[in-house]
Amino acid sequence: MGLREQARQDAHAILNDPAGFSWPVSVVNPEGAILALRGLSNDVEQTIDPDTGLAVSGRRASVALHLDDVEAFGMPIGVQDPASKPWVVRFDDILCHAHEFKVRKAYPDRTLGIMTCELETYRSV
């Protein structure tokens, strides 16, 4: 087995290990079908201005999922069309509060087999 295949298998194991760092994430397609899987997410209320180093208001959220899972589910790659019904991602924060986000951009990493989705607030759950 080559290093790339080993990296892909390792990423799959990390993203799907319920005893590890991953947690439940749901992906909802525009038709309402739900894919329940595990992944890694972040949701940061404040960001740092790279020019000044100061915290500025805003919110940054993303989720990393295994590429095979979301490609099989039909998630499109790249910038999502704002005129179409969105793909939605749901996950709980560290305090078990549910959050729902619209997928703004979906970027595949075909070396490790990970799909990173940039998210924006969609609605409160």
Explain how this protein is built:
Strand 2 (34-48) and strand 3 (55-66) form a beta hairpin. The protein starts with a helix and ends with a strand. The protein has one domain: Thrombin, subunit H (Beta Barrel), CATH 2.40.10. The mean pLDDT is 88. A six-stranded antiparallel β-barrel has the order 1-2-3-7-6-5. The protein contains two helices and seven strands; from the N terminus they run αβββαββββ. It has 125 residues and is an alpha+beta fold.
Give a brief rundown of this model.
The protein is α+β, with helices and mostly antiparallel strands and 125 residues long. The protein contains 2 helices and 7 strands. The model has no long low-confidence stretch (mean pLDDT 88).
Series of H and E elements: HEEEHEEEE
- CATH architecture descriptor: Beta Barrel
pLDDT averaged over residues:
88
Strand order of the largest sheet: 1-2-3-7-6-5
Fill in the CATH topology: Thrombin, subunit H
Query: Counting H and I runs of at least 4 residues, what is the number of helices?
Result: 2
Largest sheet: 6 strands, antiparallel, barrel
Helix content class:
10-25%
Give the SSE map:
Elements: H1 3-15, E1 23-28, E2 34-48, E3 55-66, H2 67-73, E4 78-79, E5 88-92, E6 98-109, E7 114-124
Antiparallel strand pairs: 1-2, 1-5, 2-3, 3-7, 4-6, 5-6, 6-7
Structural features:
alpha+beta; Thrombin, subunit H; globular; 6-stranded antiparallel barrel; 2 helices; 7 strands; 125 residues
